[in-house]
Write a structure and sequence with these properties.
590 residues, alpha/beta, four-stranded parallel sheet, 14 helices, 23% helix, 23% strand, transducer, EC 3.1.4.11, PLC-like_Pdiesterase_TIM-brl, lipid metabolism
Length: 590
């Protein structure tokens, strides 16, 4: 970009021109390069290998690995008609291109699935969607199979479908009941799941059904599921499992989870009177570019009088069953039985020695339960599955802090996949781990019998993060996108999401009028529970007159961060990777 100029019109007769400097290696990178190079100014294959071992902490790096990097950078230069004598090694420009290129990401692309996948399902965090069929808000958006397809392509492994009779009571539709959402046919959703279930991951897909059907339609649903999935369907019979099978044993299988059938209660028509107008006041909102998520230690007002909590009774009804209303062929399909049963929280969390099940709690129920029943919840989740779902007044499809579930061993922390913002970015970050397969092994302390206490913990390690610079906005955005009259004024925010003791966000200085900001700032993050820590990175453009503009974000599991100097790609609000925008950062564990 050397020598390029950008022009901004200030008025009809006056323009401002800004010359753009080329991206230049930070001083720290230059110093490291010259430390490892010979007098001729080129880094040889052996010197690059030493750098990879000593700075990048790639202990198993070979001469072949180093040569492959040099060849890759050389090929890139040749394609751009830039001369590089690759037989002699890398010059400073080539070294900088390698560090800031696609071949140097913060997570190891060769790692793939590396967690032990032979433990029971209850030993994993599972990538879980809520109301997976909705395209927008919870009250009036269109139901479709497209969000389901998108979720599966991202690696989501738990799809939720609310199934209801159609208007003529002779077929089954998927919709958010008692709202104005437009339905989609169940068979369409099932066929899309079959086609796209294992595009991103071979590990099992769980379909959680919220069932509002008559026995006749339950039988029809069973027929549709059986015909659609055939041999892909995991069906252990009508009895509850004594232990969940492993993800490895269930590869490319579809699992059905719901409460066993009960009498169909015809839904009364509910008029959504002032609810839609109140949703902005009652719902827990997030700014579209990522307002801080509410701490789960704060008390909530979710049960205000007059609020329509559509899902507050998702599994609150008594689990007594009337055999004459059951469709046996439907019941036989249920592999993971769900339900709360009679009694209160202590009964719900009861661990049975010869039976495993799934329990669903709203975010509010979990927030209240962790005050008194922390150890009971952790013990329950060591054998059983706990699903957490957003409170019903999140009409705008916003989300809650997923860490409250993960901290207490909840496997299925369900978020609205269309609720873009900080909470969903944390979900994306968590499930970048383990090769993005949708299953992440829980930390050992959540799987053992001892008490889990997060207060007064000692620091296990400190993550040192250096934010060198960023580039790519000039290519991915129009030159007046951030400011009509000058280049953007970028700053970065870096921090940790995790247990309360580790949570923090820090900010670089703002650099004015610069498409290639060079911050060169260092931050230290002491971590008490690094196993649950996620590194948050955001870039914003400072605006003196309005809200600061969003300029990219990413979230990365600390447990899988590669040490050394890395090129960190940034993503849009929706989690889609920008073509060019990235930061140059360094990660060290001290």
């Amino acid at each position: 970009m050397s020598g390029k100029q950008t022009t901004y019109r200030v008025c009809f007769c006056f323009q401002r021109r800004f010359r753009m400097a080329a991206a230049e290696a930070p001083d720290d990178v230059k110093a490291i390069f010259f430390k490892y190079t010979a007098a001729n100014g080129f880094m040889s294959v052996e010197q690059l290998r030493r750098f990879m071992v000593e700075v990048q902490k790639e202990e198993n790096a070979t001469l072949e690995d180093a040569q492959a990097l040099i060849d890759g950078v050389s090929l890139l230069h040749e394609l751009k008609h830039i001369t590089l004598f690759h037989r002699r090694g890398l010059n400073l420009e080539g070294f900088f291109k390698y560090l800031f290129g696609d071949a140097n990401p913060p997570l190891n692309p060769k790692l793939k699935v590396h967690h032990d996948m032979n433990a029971p399902l209850s030993h994993y965090f599972i990538y879980t969607g809520h109301n997976s069929y909705l395209t927008g808000n919870q009250l009036s958006s269109v139901c479709s199979d497209i969000p389901i397809i998108n979720a599966l392509h991202r690696g989501v492994r738990v799809i939720e479908l609310d199934i209801w009779p159609n208007s003529t009571k002779d077929n089954v539709e998927v919709l958010h009941g008692r709202t104005l959402t437009t339905p989609v046919k169940l068979i369409r959703c099932l066929r899309s799941i079959k086609e796209h279930a294992f595009v991103a991951s071979e590990y099992p897909v769980v379909i959680t059904l919220e069932d509002h059907l008559t026995p006749h339609l339950q039988a029809k649903t069973a027929e549709m599921i059986t015909k659609t999935f055939g041999g892909m369907l995991y069906s252990p019979g009508s009895e509850c499992l004594s232990e969940f099978p492993s993800p490895e044993s269930l590869k490319r299988m579809i699992i059905i989870s719901t409460k066993p059938p009960k009498e169909y209660l015809q839904a009364k028509d509910v008029k959504i009177q002032e609810t839609t107008s109140k949703k902005g006041k009652d719902a827990s909102k997030q700014e579209p570019w990522g307002k801080e998520i509410q701490s789960f230690r704060t008390k909530t007002n979710a049960n205000k009088v007059g609020c329509l909590d559509i899902e507050s009774n998702e599994e609150d009804e008594e689990d007594f069953k009337l055999d004459q209303y059951e469709a046996p062929e439907y019941r036989r399909l249920i592999a993971i039985h769900a339900g709360k049963g009679r009694g209160g929280m202590q009964d719900w969390l009861r661990v049975e020695p010869n039976k495993v099940r799934r329990l669903s709690l709203s975010e509010q129920e979990l927030e209240r339960a962790v005050v008194t029943y922390t150890q009971d919840i952790v013990r329950f989740t060591q054998r059983n599955l706990l699903r957490v779902y957003p409170k019903g007044i999140r009409f705008d499809s916003s989300n809650y802090n997923p860490l409250i579930g993960w901290m207490h061993g909840a496997q299925m922390v369900a978020l609205n996949m269309q609720g873009y913002g900080t909470a969903l970015w944390l979900m994306h970050g968590m499930f970048r781990a383990n090769g993005g397969c949708g299953y992440v092994k829980k930390p050992e302390f959540l799987l053992k019998g001892g008490d889990v206490i997060y207060d007064s913990l000692l620091v296990k390690m400190t993550l040192k993060v250096t934010v060198y610079m960023g580039e790519g906005w000039f290519y991915d955005f129009h030159h007046t996108y951030f400011d009509n009259y000058s280049p953007p004024d970028f700053y970065a925010r870096v921090g940790i999401a995790g247990v309360p003791a580790d949570v923090v966000m820090k900010k670089t200085k703002t650099l004015d009028d610069n498409w290639i900001p060079n911050w060169d700032e260092v931050f230290l993050f002491p971590l008490t529970v690094p196993e649950l820590a996620l590194l948050r990175v955001e870039v914003h453009e400072h605006d003196t007159s309005e809200k600061d503009d969003f300029a990219g974000q990413t979230c990365l599991p600390v447990s899988e961060l590669r040490q050394g100097i890395r090129a960190v790609p940034l993503h849009t609000r929706k989690g889609e990777r920008y073509k060019s925008v990235r930061l140059l950062m360094r990660f060290e564990f001290i």
